[in-house]
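RECORD CONTENTS
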Amino acid sequence: MAPRSRLAGLLAVGAVLLSGCNAAANSPGGDGGGNGPSLVLVTPNPVGVNDFLRLAVKGVEDAAKEHDGSQKVYQSTDPASLQQNVAAAVRDAPDVIVAVGFNFADVLAQQAEQHPDQQFLFVDSCTAKPYPNVTCAVFREYEGVYLAGAEAGLLSRSGKVGAVVALDTPQFHRYSDPFGQGARKVKPATTLSPLFIGGSNPFNDPGRAKELAATLAGQGVDYVMGAASASGNLGVFEAAKEHGIFAFGVDANQCPASPGQVVDNVIKRTDVVISDGVSAILDGKKGKARSYGVEEEGISLTGLQPGVESSKCLIADHPDVLEQVAKLRDDITAGTITIDDPAQA
């Protein structure tokens, strides 16, 4: 290798190592310091006040505590740092690397193939090709969306509910179709109007999300499921406030973002899923897809969780509605209500 090329290579490796070290240094929580297994979590974005990612951190901390192990968190800021952090995590050679979000699909596939002895827990998505060292933990979001739809059906005065969803694909129909089904379960005459953001930036287009929510309001819709990522949902919430309608959030409690407009949220319990998935891998049950819905407590509503009184969600003012929705949840768990997965249709 020529001196100039060798210097460039060393600088590149140094940048990767520096990025990984900085990410870990800014991680929430400590290493844990136990003598058991080591765990590393890589997030797609800074944790900050992101409740979805904060639950992921809690899940890794809970798993480390349960197994008397240690844990570390690498927080990514962009696609480049995401890849660098996964590479840094692999160099750490922990017992389990946990990655959260579909953003990791390609890089985990690459690393899993190159490092067959490294175990990965991939949360909220899965690699296109199965790997014996990648355990996928996916959510049955449609069960929670169905319950949110039931709340909307019980609360709606117009009998019209809607959804603003990032993409018009089978996977994202999990956030629209079951919303209408849940509403019709409790009020058979209820209609659903779904709209899809699309375009070049469907997960970060609050202006378009706001426009579509306003369109639904103009059609008489009074309750809207927002599934347009955190930034997109802010547009839905703004439209709800301006037009006097009400919205539902996803993934984490979004009620504090718009008090008085957000009814409830479909919660993905990443803490439950990570703790359970890590235990499964350590017990030798690895390399398979694990599915979490209301029965496994991987999916829930803020309104069905402890502390709803302080959640700033409007559903807290409707205990009668929560009682009916809790019964539907129990029916799903018991198998007396079965909800089809739109992604498998």
